[in-house]
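In response to reviewer comment 3 from the previous cycle, which asked for concrete evidence that the modeling workflow produces usable outputs, we include below a single protein chain processed end to end. The sequence was submitted unchanged, and the resulting structure tokens are shown without manual editing.
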Amino acid sequence: MQKTSTEGGSTTGGVNPWLIVTVLGFSGLCAALMQSLVIPIQSELPHLLGTSASNASWVLTATLLGGAVAMPVAGRLADMFGKRPVLVASAALLLVGSLVCAMSSSLVPMLVGRVLQGISLGYIPVAISFVREVVPARLVNSATASISATLGVGGALGLPLAAWIAQDHNWHALFWVSSVLAAVVTVLSLVALPHVRDGHSAHLDVVGAVGLAVGLVAVLVGVSKGNDWGWTSGRTLGLVVGGVVVLLAWAAFELRHSDPLVDLRTTAVRPVLMTNIAALLIGFGMMAQSIVVPQLLEMPARTGYGLGQSVLAAGLWFAPAGLMMMLFAPVSSFLLTRFGGRIALALGAAVLALGYVCGAVLLDAPWQLMLATCIASAGVGIGYAAMPTIILENVPGREAASSVGVNSLMRSVGTTIAGAVMSVVLTSKTTVFAPGLPEIPTLDAFRLCFIVGAVAAAVGAVVALLVPGRVRRAEVAVDVEAVPEPAVR
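The workflow returned the following structure tokens.
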């Protein structure tokens, strides 16, 4: 029997609220695992798939693109048709994508499967917005913090898990394991999540969805491949500039649409706008450590600054950072309840910056890098919990999932930009380790990466402080709805 939700904690059809939170958190973690699943075997992919190194790099990029497009679209679909159906559909796509990858030995089907795995990342923002409808008000902040953390936890835990599986088993086992996890997620989403009538009458803006997808894919591909293709090459500039033009045209279309995919007027409300900018900067900061730290850990000790760790050992040194995000969920909940999202977000960004400052000076041993990444990840955990809280407090209920999806998209854009910037920094200062071998980044290059990450996080903290104080939801709904609508297209 379906139940109708109420604001600030709703009925759950007799299901234990913490069971719901556990299912949503576990499912979000499994979806997030897909981001780092192929990193340990990335150098072997050309041989495994019978293709070039350039083509093989799309195996990682495909998941990024799928997730970027899916997050706002999944959120909009959840607002229209209800969040539980979209959660189940996202889990099913994760299962299909994992099975396709598990049975693939060539590039094209692998890319199809990886795109589907990326689309399943839409599960996470929908799950975060669903919490407020099915969990009692007293548990909302704790539940939001726990589920938000899974985006970072999954990525961090995926490295050692994937390295262990790839080291001791056939590489296809990576995707058979993800298939089993996806099957569990699908069943749990069907059985344990309550039915809630939370859909709203609306029409899917197909043109807006296509326009957003084309613009995002063009920009993200241009940025992620810029270092390989050359930042002044025709392909890079054409994709980035063309993508920006498409996004500008898309924005103009959305502003004129009576029922847009993304309500840009809502995203322009100051608390939402500042939070999304902070999301981009914190997403940048989170990805910076994911790129720099493994390289330092795995670089040969003979360089004088490399730490000589195996791929599996590097993943294990990095794993506590992911666990730190989860362990800080109660701290995030306390900060949200006591001080509100604005202070929690600023504090999270400041802690992230502190972690990078530590990383710039603690480079002599694996445990030192682990300490720096744990500090940084604690900041990420606090920030990731605060962002959806601020968003949900400042948007109408009918746009909750799509607004959280846009916020998640901004984090993803930040991670993409970080990948490009870190690549530029690491290739700007190189040295020859041995005759006949490729050049490698210098120690100063790694330090500069940490400094860039610290600056980005510090700016994120300043932006977070520009978010206004708490506003009652009813007032926000009236303010947003009072904006006059333009002519229908």
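DSSP finds 20 helices and two strands in the chain. We consider this sufficient to address the reviewer's concern, and the full set will be provided in the supplementary archive.
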